[in-house]
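Q: What does the assembly look like in three dimensions?
Context provided by user:
Components: two
Sequences:
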Amino acid sequence: MSTSAIVFGVVAVSILWGGFAVCLRIAVKNQG
Amino acid sequence: MSENRGQWGSRMGFIMAAIGSAIGLGNIWRFPYVAASNGGGAFLIPYLFALLTAGIPILILEFSLGHKVKASTPGVFGRVKSKLEALGWFQTLISFGIMVYYVAIIGWSMNYFVYAFTTKWGTETKAFFFNNFLKVSDGPFLLGGVNTTTLVTLVIAWSLNYIILRGGVKAGIEKANKIFMPLLIICLITVTVRGVTLEGAAQGLDYFFKPDFSKLTDVKVWIAAYGQIFYSLSICFGIMITYASYLPKKTDIVNNAFMTGLGNCSFSIMSGVAVFSVLGYMATQQGVNVADLNVSGIGLAFIVFPQAINALPGFNGLFGAVFFLCLIFAGLSSSMSIMEVVVSSTADKFNVSRNKVLTLATVAGFAISLVYVTGAGIYILDIVDHFINTYCIAIAGLIELVALKLLLNLEKTRQYANKLSDFSVGKWWNTTLGVLTPVLLSIMFVTNAYHDFVNGYEGYTVKALLVIGAGTVALIAGAAFVVSSLNGSKEFEERLSKGVDM
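A: Here is the predicted structure of the complete assembly.
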């Protein structure tokens, strides 16, 4: 697997899943 | 209308239902293909841009309207301007049009879930799917008989939707999503883990993620990204407005929209990893390039994936069953939201109990969907799906955005959303909704229409495209005008006359 593919895969997953996790954390924090 | 409306039991219940609605069959079988064909990793740049400038802004708009007005789609648009009620019915009938064929595909997934245990499709998966399973006729106008195999699962799929929706918003939709969504994620993780540990998976993932930056200058790639975001988020055909109308007074708009958008796209990326790792394995086994196996839609799920399942070194049946379970859960979580639009809109306007409407709509929907279990079913499904997605949703979205830009004060709507939310959305939201997204939707519509006009669609005759495809669009639009012109209940008409302060 090429390096560029690995980089793009990791970055995409980090932005999307990371973004979702941050939003979820804010929601949980504000709910509590 | 609002007094008798159901309400979500918890914020998480709403989020799961909204994400469940957005995640559908297209996330699993369309996104990987679109991404890989439009620059691989580089496609993710326009894709994320489209999510932030079109997907999430429209979600915020629809959540705000549904929450503020607390009515179904025709009720919301009718409050903005009485003549716009027809747009609400247009979106509602688009949902009904999608529902009747979507349920048929869920049924096929149920059949294949059972077939997977014994890999009943054999080695000639294409011939099996078209000849043995669907028993296809020679053209879209030759119905042939009703296929009892697919009829049985069609009944099961309609029944499941009926049972879930009969429970109402909290005990039906919310509860079902709280079961389906975790199961869907577990199934997808199972397929992904198995996929990436197969020999050759890296070849598939390389094809999926390797960036081709030259594609970024191609307008078609940007249109594909906006199209993918637009069609996969359940926006502009009533679902998100209806779901948001069940939110309690004290809630969140902006963060809920971000979670729905990001959750949907996260799932798509994971589906891409699962699909392309398995295709990579298959390509390695057959000694071909992954690009040769890059197919989408029904062909991927029911022809190529069964081939991949055949080629697995072990646990073929179990792996196949888990894959088709993914399709079933993703399909059901979307179909229940699509049907809820129809139920909610009709019950609101005519002030009839939702269970009566549900029963009537299910019987009518089932009767129409019988056409999809005939020998011509797949042809009709293909044409209707193409026309609804390409034309109806684009028209509905375009009219919605232009009308709301002209009739609402978007700045006021933004302030309404921000006042309720965990974090605020900036003034860029007004620009993306009022200018950027309508322009891109128009380009998308014109490009697709031009392409169809010049090239036709999938080799179908002009007569088939006009009668079945354009006929469906005309029927939906005509019926929307007729239903909106009917007198609603006194309460509904009174509420329409109140307008909306936004």
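Follow-up: The CA atoms of residues 200 and 478 of chain B lie 52 Å apart.
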